[in-house]
UniProtKB/TrEMBL annotation:
Taxonomic lineage of the native organism: Eukaryota, Metazoa, Ecdysozoa, Arthropoda, Hexapoda
Keyword Cell inner membrane: no
Originating organism: Chironomus riparius
Keywords tagged on the record: Calcium, Disulfide bond, EGF-like domain, Extracellular matrix, Glycoprotein, Repeat, Secreted, Signal
Domain of life: Eukaryota
Domain EGF-like: start-end pairs: 402-444, 608-649, 650-690, 696-736
GO molecular function, one term: calcium ion binding
Subcellular location: Secreted, Extracellular space, Extracellular matrix
UniProt-recorded name of the protein: EGF-like domain-containing protein
Similarity comment: Belongs to the fibulin family.
Family matches, as InterPro entries: cEGF, EGF, EGF-like_Ca-bd_dom, EGF-type_Asp/Asn_hydroxyl_site, EGF_Ca-bd_CS, Fibulin-1, Fibulin_C, Growth_fac_rcpt_cys_sf
Pfam families attached to this UniProt entry: cEGF, EGF_CA, Fibulin_C
Signal sequence, renumbered to the chain: 1-28
């Protein structure tokens, strides 16, 4: 299929009747490339909305020779100005279609084109709203205004065709198009007229209304002000004109039109939505109609989520009219890095995993993006690299051993904590008597007295201390005892030694618990109530007298009366009370002993009763009686606790002391009768002669050959490791080879061919490539350069391809010969033509053979990629270009190109061949681009043919 494109060069100032090539100081090829390069610079500068006069001339002298700087600057300014004109003209037409003002350009540069094209578009809208035809035989205003008028006329007519056919288009022009008049628009049969409101007059342009010179009376002011509230819907009062002015709903955003399928057209007091379904349906697949610019624009399927790419492994690339899913490859990362699908980052490749990275005698040190080979002074016996120990471990020999932080750092934990070593770390636990505060994360003291976790007696008071508690006696010790602050007990006072007794001769002091006794040296005085009865003493005198009984005495009358011994002398001890009786007295104990105490023999003190010795204690058969001051306790053996029925019950230390952890963390507590032991968990064993401590079992030492490659012992277990390039098998002991090529195929470890080898992998390349210096990429072999004469025939041109080459023969057509100056060109043998021999003029001046090699599926920007420029060195106004596909060769399964893959873009005095879509490969494409030159009266002046061979390789590298 042939695609014809015509380009009119309106900027050209010279005409040429036949193509010729400059042969003076600069060759024709140089002129073509220089002009194209400079014009592209101007296009880019103008597309950025920059002033053309501010272009920064910073061109490579190798591209633009110093003698052509002036020509290049002129070309830049022309192409830059063209971009501004195109932009401003398009913006002006859009403003007219949206009923905006033609004076509201947002860009100061090229405003005249904005206004001119806006006004021209309005003319086209008016014509399209009438019965007049949109096309004219003769030019009305010239380019580009004639084109704008015709486009806008056609657009509104196509929009009108979608409206109600019964609606009168001829009489509705004022309703359809806004801003035709400054005040009142009156439709006519085939056009319209403008009228002004009262107090205004129409200017000569028959559009603008201005105030009349006469002054309005003050009496009219209230009437005018009343119009503020009397404006009809769609109108608003304007204080400057003192009139109800139309509201442009299209500009205020109040119009309820579908932006994608309708265009908003403001009317007097309202608005109208014009259907543009015909425009929408005319867009190709992958494009949608955009009413704001009245064009079909590409749909960005990637941005709108309309693609079906796997975002985890693929990148979505938008292309004109479609999209492409491209695998995420490591080529997007710098050398030495690979793309990680989970972190979405380029991660470092550890080249040292490859055992062949460094020669013998050197060790490999991995760096970010590369590696180093460092000479070693000693040769290690083991084939694997010494591991770098993790935090909390240190290297001991060739193994990583846990660091006992508790032994190295005595202050690892604070004063209220105990340090517990763990594999690779340590743990601070609270000491006994402390508990962890979850808010402050500090060990706080436990108040055992407050939560009743003490064992103080009823006669004692619990006083909390830091980390523990004390039992303080609450009752006084009483007479004869002194409180001992160290033992918290009442110690007996030895009154005899302290000389605190009142024993006199013939009595001597004997100490007792809490008191003392005065004992006769020959006899012992009763300790109970004493009654003394004196026997009558008979004395014989010369004059016998009657005698009184003991305890009596004669008074002065000679009568026997009672002797009050308690008054005469106190015969009782200090702890007794003397009570006189008739003829005697009684000593009554004044002390009352509490339970568990009794008076001593002298009756002076209360002494403890040893219930255990007197067998008064009521203890069970398994209990042991222990006397204590004032009572006794029944004690059970260690590991038992007393019950209410005086039996001994086993203490479950594992449950009772679980908060204090009777066993370490690597053991389970097992209760036994009267005791407990710690059962070590797997990987631990009890210490010799201590069933409450567990030590680690070194499986690697005790069981040689446990692992195939490496055995690493750690706290409570062991782990088998493998050398680089191997992985642990399911039994966790043997090692299997890692197929890096299959496991990391999404990372593309190798650009070309990945070959798995035991413990590693190796990169290779297809024929026509050699392995790169990074040992993973493939470099193309340029057979044409490295093998001179590889093409045997002189008529063949060697063209290098990715992974191959081609010897393509150039056979000049009849009447042509090889150009000795340019080996890829055939020129006419004779350039002479009769003045009326048009067939001679139509014959191409030359055939050029051009070869382009590329990789398949190359990313193509939205605007396309330039492949080839065809230009004439002579200024001409009438140029036509014709592009066609001569031949296509591709194997089955390869997407063949069509005309839609290519396009022509006008450049000064020529065109650029654009590639619009990625090409699949391998594929050979032959294009023929013809340039025809005509005189002003359409007489053939010359032509040139460019044969373009596009050779797409098989591999994307």
């Amino acid at each position: 299929m042939k695609e014809m494109m015509q380009v009119n060069c309106g900027l050209c100032v010279f005409y040429a009747f036949m193509i010729f090539f400059v042969t003076s100081t600069v060759s024709a090829v140089d002129i073509e490339s220089i002009v194209s390069h400079c014009c592209n610079e101007g296009n880019d500068w103008g597309s950025q909305r920059k002033h053309c006069s501010e272009y920064k001339f910073n061109l490579d002298k190798n591209v633009v020779p110093a003698g052509l700087h002036g020509l290049c600057l002129s070309t830049v300014e022309i192409c830059c100005a063209k971009q501004h004109r195109i932009y401003q003209c398009t913006a002006g037409a859009v403003a007219a279609k949206s009923s905006s003002s033609c004076d509201s350009s947002t860009d100061n540069y090229g405003t005249e084109f904005f206004k001119d094209c806006c006004e021209a578009c309005k003319i086209g809208l008016v014509i399209g709203s009438t019965s007049h035809t949109c096309s004219t035989e003769n030019s009305l205003f010239g380019s580009p205004w004639d084109d704008i008028i015709e486009d806008c006329c056609t657009d509104i007519r196509e929009a009108d065709s979608e409206d109600d056919p019964n609606e009168s288009n001829e009489k509705d022009i004022c309703q359809r198009i806004d801003n035709l008049c400054t005040h009142i628009c009156v439709p006519t049969d085939d056009s319209y007229v403008c009228k002004c409101r009262e107090g205004y007059k129409l200017l000569e342009d028959n559009i603008t209304c201005v105030k009349e010179t006469n002054v309005i009376d003050d009496t009219t002011i209230p009437q005018t002000l009343n119009k503020v509230d009397n404006c009809s819907p769609g109108m608003a009062f304007d204080e400057s004109s003192e009139q109800c002015e139309d509201i442009n709903e299209c500009e205020t955003g109040d119009a309820n039109c579908d932006r994608e399928s309708q265009a908003c057209l403001n009317t007097n007091g309202s608005y109208k939505c014009l259907n543009i379904i015909s425009k929408v349906s005319s867009c190709e697949d992958g494009y949608r109609y955009q009413a704001r610019i009245a064009q079909c624009v590409d749909i960005n399927e990637c941005a709108e989520g309309l693609d079906d790419c796997d975002r985890r492994t693929q990148l979505c690339l938008n292309i004109p009219g479609s999209f492409k899913c491209q695998d995420k490859v490591v080529d997007t990362c710098l050398p030495g890095l690979k793309y990680d699908l989970e972190t979405k980052l380029c991660e470092d490749v550890n080249e040292c995993l490859d055992p062949d990275s460094c020669d013998n005698g050197y060790k490999c040190l991995n760096t970010v993006g590369s590696f180093e080979c460092v000479a070693v002074t000693t040769q290690r016996n083991k084939p694997f690299r010494i591991p770098k120990c993790a935090r909390g471990y240190h290297l001991q020999g060739d193994q990583c051993v846990d660091i006992d932080e508790c032994a190295y750092d005595r202050e690892a934990c604070d004063a209220n904590q105990i340090c517990i070593n763990l594999p690779g770390a340590f743990q601070c636990d609270c000491k006994v008597g402390f508990v962890l505060d979850p808010l402050t994360n500090a060990c706080e003291d436990i108040n055992e007295c407050q939560i009743n976790l003490h064992d103080c007696l009823e006669t004692q008071r619990c006083d909390n201390t830091i980390g523990s508690y004390r039992c303080i006696r609450t009752q006084s010790c009483g007479t004869g005892y002194t409180f001992n602050a160290e033992t918290l007990q009442c110690d007996d006072d030895d009154e005899c030694t302290l000389n605190r007794h009142n024993c006199y001769d013939p009595y001597e002091c004997h100490n007792t618990k809490g008191s003392f006794r005065c004992i006769r040296k020959t006899t012992t005085t009763s300790t109970t109530t004493t009654t003394t009865t004196r026997k009558p003493e008979i004395r014989y005198t010369t004059t016998p007298q009657p005698h009184c009984p003991n305890g009596f005495e004669r008074n002065y009358l000679g009568a026997c009366i009672d002797i009050n011994e308690c008054e005469v002398r106190n015969p009782c001890s200090r702890s007794q009370k003397c009570i006189n009786t008739n003829g005697g007295y009684r000593c009554i104990n004044s002390l009352t002993c509490q339970n568990g105490y009794e008076l001593n023999a002298e009756g002076t003190q209360c002494i403890d009763v040893d219930e255990c010795a007197t067998r008064e204690a009521n203890c069970g058969p398994q209990q042991t009686c222990k006397n204590k001051p004032g009572g006794y306790v029944c004690l059970c053996p260690s590991g038992f606790v007393s019950t209410n029925n005086r039996n001994c019950e086993d203490i479950n230390e594992c449950e009772f002391y679980k908060d204090r952890r009777p066993c370490p963390s690597n053991a389970d507590c097992v209760n036994s009768i009267g005791s407990y032991h710690c059962h070590c968990k797997a990987g631990f064993k009890n210490e010799v002669n201590d069933d409450r401590k567990c030590v680690d079992v070194d499986e690697c030492t005790e069981y040689p050959g446990l692992c195939q490659h490496r055995c690493i012992n750690y706290w409570g277990s062991y782990k088998c490791g493998c050398e680089a390039g191997f992985k642990l098998s399911a039994n966790n002991r043997t090692c299997d080879d890692v197929d890096e090529c299959e496991q990391h195929k999404s990372y593309r470890l190798c650009v070309g061919i990945c070959e798995n080898i035991p413990g590693s992998y190796r990169c290779g390349c297809p024929d026509g490539y050699r392995i790169g210096t990074d040992s993973r990429s493939c470099e193309d072999i340029d057979e044409c350069k490295e093998t001179p004469g590889i093409c045997r025939s002189v008529d063949e041109i060697c063209t290098n391809l990715r992974g191959s080459h081609r010897c393509i023969p150039i056979q000049c057509p009849y009447g042509y010969m090889r150009d000795p100056d340019r080996t890829n060109r055939c020129k006419r043998i004779s350039m002479l033509c009769d003045h009326d021999d048009y067939e001679c003029f139509r014959k191409p001046t030359s055939y050029s053979y051009n070869f382009i090699s590329m990789v398949p599926n190359m990313t193509v920007p939205v605007a396309g990629t330039g492949l080839f420029n065809l230009q004439t060195t002579v200024w001409s106004q009438n140029l036509e270009f014709d592009l066609k596909i001569d031949s296509i060769y591709s194997p089955p399964g390869v997407q063949r190109v069509t005309d839609h893959y290519f396009s022509l873009r006008k450049v000064p005095q020529g065109v650029t061949l654009l590639l619009l879509r990625p090409l699949d490969g391998p594929q050979d494409i032959e294009l023929e681009l013809t340039m025809n030159v005509f005189t002003q009266d359409r007489t053939p002046s010359g032509s040139s043919v460019a044969k373009i061979f596009i050779l797409v390789s098989e591999y994307p590298f």
